[in-house]
Amino acid sequence: MAVETEARPEAGSAPQMASKVTSKVPAAENTLRILKLLASRRGPMAASQIASTLGLPRSSVYHLLGVMEANGFVLHLHEEQRYGLGISAFELSSAYSRQEPLSRLGRPLLASLVDALGESAHLAVLHGRDVLYIVEERAKNRPSLVTDVGVRLPSHLTASGRAILAALPKSQVRALYPNAAAFTARHEVEGAIMKYSALSSHLDRVRQRGYATEHGEVTPGFGSIAAAVTDHLGWPTAAVAVTFLEDKLPAEQWPALAARVQKVADELSVRLHGRPAK
Question: For the packed helices 58-70 and 47-54, what is the interaxial angle rounded to 10 degrees?
Fold first, then answer.
């Protein structure tokens, strides 16, 4: 298969994606660039659009798409004359989940955070409207928490969930919380979030300060601070959180603690080949 050895920017191509390919195996690199581009879009793309966006010759793009289609990594939608991700790409995603890289990469970072702070920490991902806890690092001489591995809690009640929700498009948050029935509470607390308008206002504050908090909504007397972990597109993949007895940590110390949590979340974002949360 003959392919061009370097990218050729075309008019209208994205500057950040039209850079010259410096790899010694340009066909392999361009194949990966096409897959990453398709994964970043919400729908299939025409081959000409792929070529223009990446600054590649159309002949090269058609050749590469043909090979990827034959191996199941892209699917050609003949009626639309567009290409989307195929079943082999989905199988790679499933394999990624099975290998638990998020847990493996996150655990040592959380362990170091716990050692530095003396407070318990956990890592959670969004699962429907809930957060699912996948790592817990308990600090020495600290009480047990309900946020054990495998536990699910409503995301709007937790600092972890709020950090993730704040990093999602508002339209998606609204889809997750379409009506009052979507909101539940574990305890009666002042200012409980029980409707979408309250959640939306709260998430605006999370976005403004860069971290999320929770005050006794999960367990009375305990507070949490969390920050989102993001992928290379800025999409939230998880959240790092620290939980502590509120009467042991004055409110004026929360921003400093949040900065430590944010630093760990940023580091995990980088390790996942993502970008730090802003």
Answer: 120
